[in-house]
Amino acid sequence: QVNSKRGDSQCKEKHAVLLSPVGKLRISGCETGLHEIKLPKISTLPSGAESSAVCEVCEGAEEMTEPLKQCAAWLHAYFCEPARMASFPVPPFHHPLLQQDSFTRQVLWTLLRDVKFGEAVSYKQLADLAGNGRAARAVGGAMRSNPIPIIIPCHRVICSSGKTGNYGGGNLMKEWLLSHEKLQKEKLAY
After folding, report:
1. pLDDT per residue over 110-161, tens digit each?
2. Are the beta carbons of 11 and 32 closer than 8 angstroms?
3. Roughly how many angstroms between the first and final C-alpha of the chain, as a whole number?
4. Distance between CA 24 and CA 39 in Å, rounded?
5. pTM of the entire structure?
6. Among 48, 88, 121, 158, which is most exposed with the fewest C-beta within 10 angstroms?
């Protein structure tokens, strides 16, 4: 029997950096799946980003595992070609948090599955969807520990009041992602 701690240390983690409209996204993963997407902190909103939408690997391209390539393709579609997103599978995940049975994992999977591009839900609505309507605070905790932001769209979770709430990449990033999706969804509707 392989001890999970030992199993994890056998993971050969690779890293890559993507240049995106919101700055450099650092992605990491192994042959099994994606471990993390690290967001940059932005202090000003990118301007004219819609017209200069770009999302390409700028570091680590030669070392990318298949899940990292899938992640880069997915992020490229997200930022540059949202109309084609449906044809891009979500890369497999290989982060311990997403492997253990927990409310956090349940919330993150529910969010990924049920809250689509251009939509938003409140913390309470997400708690309801995940099966525990009284766990809105726990949903907030799950959002804070999300290792794969953007793909697992914690930016789509907002306060019941309509305020955006906090975000790991900062509130400007959250606002940019929400408005990017809203704008793209409106374009797709025509």
Report:
1. 999 999 999 999 999 999 999 999 999 999 999 999 999 999 999 999 999 9
2. yes
3. 55
4. 7
5. 0.89
6. 48
128 and 61, same domain (yes or no): no
Q: At what angle do helices 136-144 and 103-114 cross, to 10 degrees?
A: 80
Q: What are the phi and psi torsion angles at 50 (to 5°)?
A: -60, -40
User: Which tokens go with 39?
Assistant: 């967001």
In this structure, the answer to whether residues 30 and 104 fall within a common structural domain is no
CA–CA separation, 127 and 123 (whole Å): 6
CA distance linking residue 150 with residue 79, whole number of Å: 10
Cα 15 from Cα 63, distance rounded (Å): 7
Nearest to 135, CA basis, from 167, 101, 104:
104
Which three-class secondary structure state does DSSP give residue 36? strand
In a domain, 119, yes or no: yes
Same domain, 182 and 100: yes
In a domain, 51, yes or no: yes
Range of the domain at 67: 14-87
Instruction: Provide Rg for the chain, Cα atoms.
Output: 17
User: Residue 75 domain-assigned?
Assistant: yes
Enumerate the active-site residues. 154
